[in-house]
Design goal:
InterPro entries: IolE/XylAMocC-like, Xyl_isomerase-like_sf, Xyl_isomerase-like_TIM-brl
CATH superfamily: Divalent-metal-dependent TIM barrel enzymes
Structural class: alpha/beta
Strand content: 15-25%
GO molecular function: isomerase activity
Oligomer: single chain
Protein name: Sugar phosphate isomerase/epimerase
Strand order of the largest sheet: 1-2-3-4-5-6-7
Distance between the termini: 17 Å
CATH class: Alpha Beta
Number of helices: 9
Keywords: Isomerase
CATH topology: TIM Barrel
């Protein structure tokens, strides 16, 4: 992936080192000094920075101490953010759990990018902003994914009043404008995303609503391209994103 990102002219990658679901494939760097050193050397050799590590699932009974090795590995590799998904429904309790994670992450100089996902218990932009407000953590940040904004009933205009300092980064993809059924939403989210410009989402408005210097990450898992080499998938995604950004007047991806 790092070689593919460098070959496509990108400047950063995200790395999954914490399994959000049992059986998810992760990079085996937590508590592994040799793997950390090798990965750090490769990032440096290819002039690629690590933007984020993922993903911590926040539940009512989550013991955040178990993530300490992963956070330590992330900061050693140069990550700025750790992604968190929320599975606590009651807002005050959710904010308390999020604050605990933020406090742990702060000891590693990491921001916690809170991502709302319609399939989780934090389904909308407004709900995410409420948790950030209640938790009131200096390293609390918001992660915006284009497809999650769309499928939660949101629109780029909803981002207009958000403090620019709250944004961590954004995930970029495309999709049909028509909402899928609730039963098909998991499939679309995880296996049917489209490259930027191939669908019908309001991507130019999305870009315009974000802070100008915000990192945009390509997030396009798709069964249609599952058999392609990783480098080719990255190159296709980067080229598609650049075409959209050029239409928006942006200079680079």
């Amino acid at each position: 992936m790092i070689a593919g990102a460098a070959g496509a002219g990108l400047d950063a990658v995200g790395l999954r080192i914490i399994a959000p679901r049992p059986g998810d494939v992760v990079a085996p760097v937590s508590g592994n000094p040799l793997a950390i050193r090798e990965l750090k050397d490769e990032l440096g050799a290819r002039n690629i920075r690590l933007n984020d590590i993922e993903a911590i699932i926040i539940r009512e009974d989550t013991d955040f101490a178990v993530f300490e090795p992963a956070l330590a590995a992330g900061v050693e590799l140069g990550a700025a953010h750790v992604i968190a998904n929320m599975y606590v429904e009651e807002p005050v309790q959710a904010a308390e759990q999020y604050a605990k994670l933020c406090e742990l992450a702060a000891r590693h100089e990491l921001c916690v990018a809170l991502e709302f996902i319609p399939l989780s218990l934090l389904k909308t932009l407004d709900q995410a902003l409420n948790i950030l407000k209640l938790a009131d953590q200096p390293n609390g940040r918001l992660l915006i994914d284009a497809i999650h904004l769309s499928r939660s009933g949101g629109h780029p205009r909803d981002l207009a009043g958000v403090d620019p300092k709250l944004f961590a980064f954004a995930h970029f993809c495309d999709a049909p404008l028509k909402q899928p059924s609730l039963e098909n939403l998991p499939l679309e989210t995880r296996q049917q995303r489209m490259l930027p410009g191939e669908g019908e989402l309001w991507l130019p408005e999305f870009v315009a609503a974000l802070p100008g210097n915000l990192t945009l990450g390509i997030e396009t898992p798709s069964l249609a391209t599952a058999g392609l080499p990783v480098a080719e998938k990255i190159a296709r995604g980067a080229a598609a994103m650049r075409r959209v950004l050029e239409r928006c007047g942006e200079k680079s991806a």
